[in-house]
Amino acid sequence: MNVTRVLAVALLTAASTSFGQTPARRATGGPPNLTGVWQTLTTANWDIEDHQAEPGIPAGQGIVDGGQIPYTPEAAAKKAEHFKNRQTLDPEHKCYMPGVPRFMYMPFPIQILHGEKFIMMVSEYAHTVRRIHLDGSRHPDGFPSTWMGDSRARWEGHTLVIDSTNFTDQTWFDRSGNFHSDALHVVERLTPRGRDHLDYEATIEDPQVFTRPWKIRFPLYRRLERNVQLLEYPCVSFLEDEYVGSRGRK
Amino acid sequence: MRWLIVAIVVLAGVPLASQTPATAKPFVPKRTADGQPDLQGYWQWTGMSTGNQKRQLDVGLNAPDGSGLWAYSEGWRDDQRRQIQNTLPKGVVDPADGWLPLQPWAEQTKYDIVDNSAFPRSLADVDPQGRCMPSGVPRTNYALPYVGYQFLQAPGYVVLYTELNHQPRIIPLDGRPHLSSKIKQFLGDSRGTWRGNTLTITTKNQRVPRATGFGWLDMNATLYSEAIDVVEKYTLVNNDIIAYETTVTDPKVMTRAWTMAGTFVRAVKDWEVLEYACHEGNHAIENIRQSIELREKEKTQKK
After folding, report:
1. Which residue of A108, A141, A175, B188 is most buried, as measured by CB atoms within 10 A?
2. Helix-strand-coil percent breakdown of chain A, rounded to 5?
3. Could you tell me which of B276, B192, B273 has the C-alpha nearest to residue B234?
């Protein structure tokens, strides 16, 4: 064993190095690394279409291209039912996972962790996670349907394109009863605009509910506070407190 | 030459006793784009299986030889069993006799809850993990024998993801301070440092369920309080094994600090974690609420 080489390796591995230079661009000029804490400023979680204010609910310009979601007549009737009963029916009230794309515009920060072959997105809301394969793999056959979908991504230049399928029909797009079936297919495009903004666009397709595919779009803003980190919104714990209260203790 | 090996091993941060016999040379792992030792991929925990001693930490049903490994697929289970055998330490290593240094009240409470677990008297008798509360640290490392782990690295971060209840731990490496004690979290607040092949993580600010007052470190009511403080070491032993060690202090529950060891073994090919929708599938919460209400009604009617 070459003593000098071994000692060099030992000293190198022993050095406590600081990591975390988040390069704006890779040295090769390839797509940027999206690691960071991001958040939307829209009020889409209340209603993804244009809506005026209600007590406790700010007004909002919708995020839907063209303004209206193209429901089939039967689906439009179902949406109206949902809206009427939204206080009980909205899965968010039960602390259920928000699905896609609602994950992206909940009023909580999300953290994107961008590895070389895999991206994880974590929401502060109920520690919900999106797992996004970036390794060229395809949607698998025969997997059980999921709340957060099966996501496979690729780069088109500097745009990250995420293709998601394999959803249940259990999530809503917002608190106003906009919904989908388990045939939902979402294609998202994330394009950095400068260092601190992502242009987000999603095409939503579900032939069982909509007459045609439709798009939403909004910017995501990088959270720039010093030492910003994702915290916890332990929704399920709050639900338990509400159900059981201090009677849970002996 | 032996002094050199000792020196290298010490510098690499791997205790000599925990090396597998096959690895006398230091392991030089691949590196991520930002220079971290690369521990990415899918992993399986191998812990210890306990006897019936109630004071031992029940870290899952994996014995060192893989017996007790649960699986939905026999093929996967047999492949994984062959893969996971290693002679690295597992279980409570300090105190040396393997018994947790529980304070007398905590030991009594543990026996009490376990004895009532078939017919819980209140929510406090029901495992918080079973109620879909996040597992806390260190339990998130050994949460259940049939779920796995995904470790991911991004520039400046390590992400330790537990399949159970989709529990992500995002560990910053940039030396930022911990959160103030005003912010407590189920998975705590973690900070990491690499030294050689060892990632050391300090975790503070853990909280417990408000409804029942304590977290559980295992399925058998080994309690922890909000005074808990955890230091963990994840050491890359070779490409397929991470040696894990944690030292836990909890002055409200234990009489002194204690240390536990285990290993993560790389999952077999083509295996990955799936979605674990804990709360969405938990219909028991409503049943539990109703049954507690009913029992209270019975009590008042008897008076």
Report:
1. B188
2. 20, 30, 50
3. B192
pTM for the whole thing? 0.88
How is B128-159 classified by DSSP, letter by letter?
GGGGT----TTGGGGS-TT--EEEEEETTEEE
pLDDT of residue A102 exceeding 70, the answer is yes
Helix and strand counts by DSSP (H, E) for chain B: 4, 12
- In this complex, which of B134, B161, B210 lies closest to A129 when CB atoms are compared? B161
Q: Rounded to an integer, what distance in angstroms lies between the CA atom of residue B37 and that of residue B195?
A: 10
- Residue B198 — φ and ψ, nearest 5°? -110, 125
CB of A172 within 8 A of CB of A91?
yes
Query: What is the distance between the alpha carbons of residues A121 and A245, in angstroms, rounded to a whole number?
Result: 32
How far apart are alpha carbons A67 and B58 in whole angstroms?
56
How many angstroms separate the CA of residue B6 from the nearest CA in chain A? 11
H or E segment and range at residue B10:
helix B2-11
- CB distance B8–A6 less than 8 Å? yes
- The C-alpha atoms of residue A22 and residue B34 are separated, in whole angstroms, by 8
Closest chain B residue by Cα to residue A17:
B194
For A18, the closest of B159, B161, B174 (CB atoms) is B174
Q: What tens digit of pLDDT does each residue of B110-165 get?
A: 999 999 888 888 889 999 998 999 999 999 999 887 789 999 999 999 999 999 99
